[in-house]
Amino acid sequence: MNEYFPSVLVGHRPADQYRMSFTAGAHSARHVRRIVRSYLREWDLAELADAVELGVTELLANVVRHVPDRRCTLLLLRQAGGGGVRVEVADGSPRLPVLAGEVPDDAEGGRGLVLLDAVVGKWGVGPGPGDGKTVWFECGDAAERPGGASPAPEAGDAR
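and the corresponding structure tokens:
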């Protein structure tokens, strides 16, 4: 079994969660998106794939850019009731993500959390390993925003 692709038994329904610890690199998001897509399909949540894959891509890009050792743990959770999913990316860096205000048109970065905020139901930041953090987001039934309101990132969110 390699680092990215877990072995899955034929005819076996995957557990309600998947956890993977790795060192993020330039191609990690592509591999992780495949895994996420596979789990969402198995959980009958394929309609969430675009939003979840974009969210995972943005969070992993932030690990690559802002976490010195690039070590992280991804947790994919099917929410109770089965209509939604929660994704957590934990790392050892105390540097908190900041939702940018206006980003100049010619800027090469700064849009990741704006995109995340636009496509997920809600997201936030909580404590992580050591002095680090966990950035999370939710998509699906349990995460739907009433009236389309944008959430504020929540520090220290408890499940």
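(Above: one complete record from the training split.) The radius of gyration is 15 Å.
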